[in-house]
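Follow-up to my earlier ticket, as requested here are the two runs.
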Amino acid sequence: MKPFSILPLNKDMLDNLKSLNYETMTDIQENSIPPILKGLDLFAQAKTGSGKTAAFGIGLLHTLDVKKYRIQALVLCPTRELAEQVTAELRRIARFQHNIKILKITGGMPLNRQEHSLKHKAHIVVGTPGRIAKVLSRGTLVLSDLKSIVLDEADRMLDMGFIDQINEIFEYAPLKRQTLCFSATFSNDIKKLGRSFLNHPVEVTVESQHSSEIIIQHFYAVNAQMKIKALLILLSEHKPESALIFCNTKDACRRVSSDLKKSGLHCLELHGDLEQKERAEVLVRFSNGSSKILVATDVAARGLDIESLEMIVNYDLPFETETYIHRIGRTGRAGKEGLALSFVKPNEEFRLNEINEFTNNSFHSKDINLAAKIEITNMEPSFITLSINGGRKNKISPGDVLGALTVKGGISGKDVGRIDRQDNLTFVAVKRDVSERAFSLLENGKIKGRKFKAMIND
C-alpha cells in the first residue's frame, strides 16, 4: 500500500490526513485519486468500506478555490443518512484549511433554513436528488461555478427511480465539468446510462467481489415460521458486538424488531416510516455501541458506515444479487473478519444459485439446529446515548462535552465513548454504569458558560 505522500497534495492536507490515520492509500484511493486530480471523469467500482468517500473528498478539496465562495462541487447521495456521513467525512478531511464551507441539503429538514444557509454561500454541497432538484428549480442553489459532480452509490443514483431528478440536476450544471461515479457495483445498463453524463471516463475496478477469506458466508434452510427462532439461535451462538439484520419490507422490519425485544434483546429498527430526526438518532446509537442489534431495510441502511460491524444477517434474501453484495460488504472491513448469515426459504433456492453464479462460489443451504439452547444473557450494550440540545451551530465541540464530563464531572475518559455533533444536537455515548451521573452533569451543569437540556436515549 502506497503512502498519500506520493500524491501532489499540499503539506497541510497531508498533515491533516496523517492526523486522521490516513497514512497509506487503499486500492481504490491509489487508482482513483490521480485521475481525479487531473480533472478527468471517472467510473470507480469498489466494495463498500474501501475508502471511496476519502478518494473523491481528497480530490475535490485539493482543487478547491477557498477564496471563491461559490458552489464548486456537488455530491449527490441516494439517502439522507449517506449524505450526513459523507458531509461529516468531507469536513474532517477539510480541516487542513480554514473557512471551507460544506453544506448538507436533504429532505426531512426545513427548506427555508437550507435556503437561508445557501444565501451565505458555500464551497461544496452534499445532498439528495429530490431536495437538490427543488432548490435548483427555486433558484436558491446556483451551479454556474461548478467544477465537479459526484454520484455516490451511483448504481442506485442512476436507477430509474432517480433518473428524472438526476437529469434535471445535470441540466443546471455547466457542460464543462468533471463527473465522478462511485459505487460497489455497476451493471452494463447502468454503465451505459452513466456514460450519458460522463466524458470519456477513466474506469477503475477494485475488488468487485468480496473476499471469502474476510467475509465468512453461511446459508441456512429455514421455513418462514421458524425464522425468528433461528435468528435467536444464531445471535445466542455468536453473541456479536454489532449485528445488522436486513429485511425486505418495513412491516418485516417492525415485526422482527418487536419479536427480538419480546425475547429480551435490546435492538433498534431503521426503515422509511421513521422521521429524519428518528433515523439520525438510530444511526448514532447503533454506531456508538448503544445497541448491538439493528434491524433495517436496504434503503434505510444505505450509507450506514460502521468500521467494525461483526455480523450481517439476511433475514430476508434480497431480490437482487447485487443487493446481496452491498449488504455483506458492510462487514469484513479494514482487514477484519466478518460474518454474513442468510436464511433461505424452500422456494428461494434459485436466489442462492444466482448468488453463487454472480460471486463464483458454490454455497449450499444447510439445516440449523432449532433445538439448540437460546442464551441471550450478556448481550446488553455497554454504552447508552445521551443527547444535548446544542450542536455545531452553538459552537459546541466534542472537547467541550468531554471536558464537562471528565474535567468538571470526574468521570473517567474510558467511560466516555463516541461524540457526534449535528447542527443543533450533540450525542455522547457513556458507559451504562455512569449514565445517571453523566446525565446529571449535562442537565445541571454548563457547557461554554451556557445551560443545555439533556436527555437519555434508550
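Run two:
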Amino acid sequence: MDGLSLTKEYIDIVKENPEKYYEDYRLTVEKVAKSNARYKGKPIPFLYQPMFFTEKDIENFNNIGKVLMSIANKVTEKYIESPEYRKKFKYPKLLEELILVDPGYDVNIPIGRFDLFYGGGDKFKFIEVNTDGTSGMNEDNIFSNILLDTESMEIMKKRYNISYFELINSWVEESLKIYSRYDKKDNKPNIAIVDFKETGITAEFEAFKKAYIEHGYNCVIADPRDLKYRDGKLYYEDMRIDLIYRRIVTVEFIEKSNEIPDLIEAYKDGAVCVVGSLRSQIMHNKIIFKILHDEDTLSFLSEEERNLIKNHIPITKEFGGDEKIFEQVLKNKDSYIIKPIDSFASQGVNAGRDFSEEEWNNILIKCWNKDYLVQEFIDPYTRPFVQFEDGKLKVKDFKLNIGVYMYNEKFAGVYTRISRNNIIFGREGYFSIPNMLVLSQV
C-alpha cells in the first residue's frame, strides 16, 4: 500500500459511476463556497480528490524534518556568533539587530513548512523552506473535513482507516508550550495574532482566534500599527499582550518598520513573547540554499546533514557578477529558474522553459545584478487526479508541491498544491488538495 496505489483505487471508484460523483462534486463545491477557505476574499480552488499518504511517508517527513531542523539550528547559531558569516545574508541593519535579540525561548523555528517535490522514499527535492508567516493550515483542514464526507471517500473509509492532519488546535497547543518556556509563571497569556490588515489572511486568522478562545484564552487579531508600548508592556487598545503569533512576513516587517516603532521597541526589550521570532528569517530567505551549499557552511555540518544538502537541495547561485553565469543561464534556459532573493506567494519566479529565447533574454537582463537567484530546474513528480469539465470526468496528471508542516520542530501535517504549470507554488493556476493519512485496511 502506497500513495499512488491508493490514488488509482480512488480514481477507479469515481470512474465506476461518473454521473453520481459529479452530482456529489457539485454539492462539495457548494460546501467549499460557503466555508471560510478563502484567500483575498475568494474561494480557494480545489479538486474532488485528496492526496493520500501512508505511515511510511510520515516517517520520511519526520526524518527529513529532523535533519533540516538540525541544519537550521547550526546555521542560526553560526549567524549569531559570527559577524563574518552574517555578511553572507546581506540583511539590512535593523533586521540583523532584531535577529540578534534573544526571543526568550530556545526554538529558532517555532513554525515552518518545507515544500518538496516528493516521489516517496529518498526521491525528493526541496523547493523552499517557509519559516516566515507560514500559512495554508485552515484551507487544508476545511477541505479535508468536507472531502471526508463525500460519497467517494465513504467507500474508501469502508476499506481503510483514514484520518486527516489537524493543524489549528495542534498549533494553539504548541505555541502555548513555547510561551511556557518564555514565562514559566504565567499560564494565561493574552494573545494577539499580528499582521498588517492589508495583507493578512483574515479567514485563517479567524480560525486560529476561535481556537485560542475555545482553549480559554483572550485573543485578538491586531494590526501591528495598533500596538502601543507603555510602562514596559505592549497593549492592543486596553488589553495587555503577552504572546504574539507573528504572521507578518519579515520583508513587510522591515519595509514598514517606521510604522511599528512600539512593537519593535517591545521586542527589543523582551517585553512580549513573539512566536516566531525574527530568527526564523535566517532559513526563510531564498539565498539560504546558496549559503547551505557554501563550503564554510558544509564544514560545520554532520555527514548526514551535508548529504541532505548535496542530494536534495537544488544548486542555487546569485544571479550577478561573473558574465559567464548570465551566458550559461541564457543558453540553457530549460535547465534554470530565476527567483527574487526574498518574496512570497512565488512572486517574480520564472522558469526558463515557460518562455521563448527572446522572452528569457529580456527577463534575465531585468534580473541581472538585481538581488535575484538562479536555481537548477527540478522536474516535479506527478500524480493523476480526477477533474470534472462540463460534467464530464477527466483524469489528468498534475505536478505536486508537498508542503510539510513542522510545529515546535516536530512533524505536524501536510499541505499539497498541484498544477499543470511549471511554477506550482503561486497563488494562481493551482489547486489546493486536502491530505489524508491512510493507516491500515479495515
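The only thing I checked on run two: The radius of gyration is 22 Å. Let me know what else you need.
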